[in-house]
Write a structure and sequence with these properties.
The chain is α+β, with helices and mostly antiparallel strands. It is built from 8 helices and 6 strands; from the N terminus they run H-H-E-H-H-H-E-E-E-H-E-H-E-H. The longest helix is centred in the middle third of the chain and has 22 residues.
């Protein structure tokens, strides 16, 4: 069977433009930070739609696009998610996490209180799908699901930053309560919870340093 192909139309720049664009984008993304203090200022739904559409441009195994983005604005539902998340997080901080883990988290100032779920105007829950169904009900496989959804989540975080908003990657463990609260099907599993909005006035973030280039890149020439 032959499948249709179309001609790729590349975006082209001069070498100097490429250098400058790559430098500008790095410097822009280097300003991205995880934020835990949110404003309740509203964000237009069109922005949320655009950033999710951007996330959906990510590559995926066999182009199966094994993701669903659950977009939550309802205050009652957000509060319910917060209560359920804090219930699990309290167990994590009190007994599930090792002393080493807690020590590593200390510079970030995290705890089991997740008020940002209530405050941020939008919550996006990224769901992963290990398999799917065709229109006729036939079960179909998805491939490299964690890798694919992870890449899409990275696109989503970059798009949030590009829009002038902030977010935080929240992964309360276990996360099965999210699927139940959102009444999702059994084929969908929670992958990531992202509050999306503006930072609070005078928002504070940890004074962290990223690894030097020489620590993260190895050349083979």
């Amino acid at each position: 069977m032959e499948y249709p192909f179309i001609t790729y139309k590349p975006v082209t720049f001069s070498e100097q433009e490429m250098i400058q664009r790559s430098k500008d984008f790095y410097e822009f993304m280097d300003r991205r930070r995880s934020v835990r203090e949110f404003s309740d200022q509203d964000v237009p739904e069109e922005i949320i739609r655009n950033i999710i559409k951007t996330a959906s441009t990510a590559p995926s195994g066999a182009h199966k696009q094994p993701w669903t983005f659950c977009v939550i604005r309802n205050k009652d539902l957000k509060h319910r998610l917060r209560m359920l998340a804090e219930e699990e997080e309290k167990k994590n901080y009190e007994s599930r996490m090792s002393e080493r883990w807690l020590k590593d988290l200390a510079p970030l100032g995290t705890d089991d209180v997740k008020e940002f779920i209530d405050i941020a105007p939008w919550i996006i829950v990224v769901m992963k799908k290990s398999y799917d169904f065709d229109a006729d009900g036939t079960k179909t496989n998805n491939y490299y699901v964690n890798e694919s959804v992870g890449i899409a989540s990275g696109f989503l975080i970059a798009a949030i930053h590009n829009a002038g908003l902030v977010t935080l990657t929240h992964t309360p463990s276990p996360m099965n309560f999210i699927a139940k609260a959102l009444d999702r099907s059994d084929i969908e599993k929670p992958y990531l919870l992202l509050p999306v909005g503006y930072p609070a006035n005078a928002c504070k973030i940890p004074d962290l340093k990223r690894k030097e280039y020489e620590e993260i890149a190895i050349y083979y020439e």
